[in-house]
Amino acid sequence: MPKWMFLSLVLSAFTLEAHADDMPCENPLVSVTGQHPRVAESICDAVEDTEALFQMCNLPTLQRLIKIRIVDELTPGCVAQFRCDEDRIEILAPKAMDTQRNRDGVLGFLPIDTYFHSIVVHELAHTVYDDEQCPFQSCIVANEYIAYAMQFMSLKPADRFAIRNNPALNRHVSRNALNATSLFLAPDLFVKNVWAHLSTRKDICTYVGQISNGTVFLDRDRH
Ligand SMILES: [Zn+2]
């Protein structure tokens, strides 16, 4: 092998290694780490889509530095998490996510790539929720609802149609049923209620805007 070729191979391996460890997205606020360069690229693409979606749905754009770490393991039952104290999202690589995700859940029918993309959007929505509009101790229900709403809106119309027509979601869920007690004590039921509530909204983006700017409250005082 000519010497120059060896050098080039070493250099490209080095570049790949650096790339795999820490990849800045086109959006200068977001970088991705983890040994999955192709997945990192798909996350950066999802960040671009997310910015457009947030703008369309009356949410603020990304404003803080966010590190997204691709991991191969998380707590059972968890496919991603946002650590707000560290401005860090941890997300399972698609293969691990496919094993861990709930196949019987509302989104169980989605191909893993679509599902993965929707999870990135969900977690990014948590990073833009503004607590300043919250007059209570916590607005965790609003925060979670907006994240699911953006996840729903990130899907193709055909997938949204399938969710809206899921017979298990064809029931009235009052705003009162979406509460912090249910979120903590019966998380599965809470998520189903959120999907059912969402799937009956005619204009999700307007509703999300009203929650985000404090016109509509999903949380309440816990005195
Ligand atoms: Zn969430």
Summarize the structure.
The chain is of the alpha/beta class. The chain has nine helices and five strands, in the order H-E-E-H-E-E-E-H-H-H-H-H-H-H. Helix 4 packs antiparallel against helix 5.
Secondary-structure element order, as H and E? HEEHEEEHHHHHHH
Largest β sheet strand count, sense and barrel closure: 5 strands, mixed
* Proportion of residues in β-strands: 5-15%
The name CATH uses for the topology is Neutral Protease, domain 2
Helix content: 40-55%
What small ligands are held by the chains?
A: zinc ion
Lay out the secondary structure.
Layout: H1 3-21, E1 22-24, E2 30-33, H2 37-56, E3 66-71, E4 80-83, E5 88-92, H3 94-100, H4 112-128, H5 140-153, H6 157-164, H7 180-185, H8 187-199, H9 204-212
Parallel strand pairs: 2-3, 3-5
Antiparallel strand pairs: 1-2, 4-5
The structure holds zinc ion.
Structure, described:
By secondary structure, the chain is α/β, with parallel strands linked by helices. It has one domain: Orthogonal Bundle (Neutral Protease, domain 2), CATH 1.10.390. It is 51% helix and 10% strand. It has helices at residues 3-21, 37-56, 94-100, 112-128, 140-153, 157-164, 180-185, 187-199, 204-212, and strands at 22-24, 30-33, 66-71, 80-83, 88-92. Strands 1-2-3-5-4 form a five-stranded mixed β-sheet. A hairpin with a 5-residue loop joins strand 1 (22-24) and strand 2. The longest helix is centred in the N-terminal third of the chain and has 20 residues, at 37-56. The N and C termini lie far apart (75 Å). Bound molecules: zinc ion. Zinc ion binds at residues 122, 126, 144, 147.
